[in-house]
Design brief:
The chain is α/β, with parallel strands linked by helices. It has one domain: Response regulator (Rossmann fold). It is 34% helix and 18% strand. It contains five helices and five strands; from the N terminus they run βαβαβαβαβα. The chain has helices at 34-45, 59-68, 85-93, 112-120, 133-144; strands at residues 25-30, 50-56, 73-76, 102-107, 125-128. The chain has a five-stranded parallel β-sheet with strand order 2-1-3-4-5, with helices on both faces. α2 runs parallel beside α3 (85-93). The longest helix is centred in the N-terminal third of the chain and has 12 residues, at 34-45. The protein starts with 24 loop residues before the first strand and ends in a 7-residue tail after the last helix.
């Protein structure tokens, strides 16, 4: 059995905006499990300077939501009710939404091949749902904290 990968460090990207600089961190959740989504939303609501912009359960809903406006952090599951998170990443890479922010994959399928593929398609972070909820919440809190230069 292969070891599970650790969360990735941010991949350098010149097209990603400086998140959290212009008001609250805008977060979108793409997650098909109502239980996990509710747990994420509840935990994220406790973070200062963060606004939940909405959620989607399918690839189609995700693309419609992401195309509606600017967002700073997308928390993306790979397994969805229709389509999958890799399809969302491919569409984002294809330029569907030019105002994209950071993308954090949050999945139960935390195997090296999914991690590598997600990062190759433009994900900035990769987290294991079974073990890394605190890490994704820390990421959101860190991104929501205004930088000293912006203060």
């Amino acid at each position: 059995m292969e070891p599970r990968p650790q969360a990735s460090q941010p991949a350098p990207r010149s097209d990603a905006p400086d998140v959290g600089e212009h008001g609250p961190l805008r977060v979108v959740i793409v997650e098909d499990s109502a239980i996990i989504r509710a747990r994420l939303e509840e935990a994220l609501e406790d973070i200062d300077n963060l606004t939940l912009m909405g959620h989607a359960e399918t690839e189609t809903e995700a693309m419609a939501l992401l195309d509606r406006g600017r967002w700073d952090l997308l928390i993306l599951d790979l397994q969805l009710k229709q389509g999958n998170g890799l399809g969302v990443l491919k569409a984002l890479r294809g330029g569907v939404n030019k105002a994209r922010g950071k993308v954090a994959v949050f999945t139960n399928y935390a195997f090296p091949q999914y991690r590598d593929r997600s990062l190759a398609l433009g994900a900035d972070y990769f987290f294991d749902k079974a073990r890394e909820l605190p890490r994704i919440l820390k990421l959101a809190a860190d991104l929501a904290t205004p930088s000293p230069a912006a203060a």
